[in-house]
């Protein structure tokens, strides 16, 4: 394995550039962060006071707990410039040694409680605002839009709108109320996403374990990885990935618990007729059809993720600029002490190919 030097201090450009350099191949690709967010105040103004919003926020409060909300409010407020101001974003990217961000709306903008008319207004506004944000830095910022998972019949239209605006795809949560990603109602959406080559960024928001996780920020630290694992399992075991082998799904947070615990899924598929009824191959084989960001907060877990999915299936991710992300994504990647070719693949070469940046 190739040992890499310690990362440069974030924000100090007098330090050595954290981006390794080489003269050929993947080593010269840009550093690409596929997990970064934009906040769109206009979306929240649109839904303010509408029926359903208060109930959704009350559920969110129950799931997270009062202590978490007391921390999260000031945290987001402090980061609003980085979430909304392109110049501030670019300065932060420069300090991190990141050349390109794939920018998705804050998951708080999903609003899957909304009726069909409101949902259309939400996704149109979110897609327009994200496209406009990224257009201020062409080449450095690329965007993802939203679709209303609660209204599967509208998802294709929303996806086509996003792609038509120049966005590279859409961000989706792990489920909508009453619907898992295995729901047959989503088949037209998967079909169109496959046809267009759109990126689908799977980023959970909220966990259905509810009040069991309302202390110590378990709603995020346990809830998000659990939601990732459940959602990916629905895609795998239901046969969605068999029927749509060219889907381009990026799972946030390293795919949660699933990639490093996939052996249990393989055993169930082999040992039980009910577990193996929906998909054609061992569950672990589908990891190589998916993509995962590198945001796992542990170099050993990152190495295990790469071992399970392959170095060509992991992409740099930071969750910019939230506190559950990393301020130094390249340094976090370097800490895993990967072989040089794997390091550069994850740093940017994989994303450069997937997002068709060249």
TrEMBL record:
Biased composition, class Polar residues, residue ranges: 12-30
A single GO BP: secondary metabolic process
Amidohydrolase-related domain: from which residue to which, for each copy?
Answer: 32-357
Would you tell me the Gene Ontology cellular component terms?
A: cytoplasm
The terms under GO molecular function for this entry are: carboxy-lyase activity; hydrolase activity
UniProt lineage = Bacteria, Bacillati, Actinomycetota, Actinomycetes, Kitasatosporales
Q: Which SUPFAM superfamilies match?
A: Metallo-dependent hydrolases
| Taxonomy, superkingdom | Bacteria
Q: Which UniProt keywords apply?
A: Hydrolase, Lyase
Fetch the PANTHER family from UniProt: 2-AMINO-3-CARBOXYLMUCONATE-6-SEMIALDEHYDE DECARBOXYLASE, ISO-OROTATE DECARBOXYLASE (EUROFUNG)
Tell me the segments the record calls region Disordered: 1-30
GTP-binding as UniProt keyword:
no
Protein's name in the database: Amidohydrolase
Record's Pfam families? Answer: Amidohydro_2
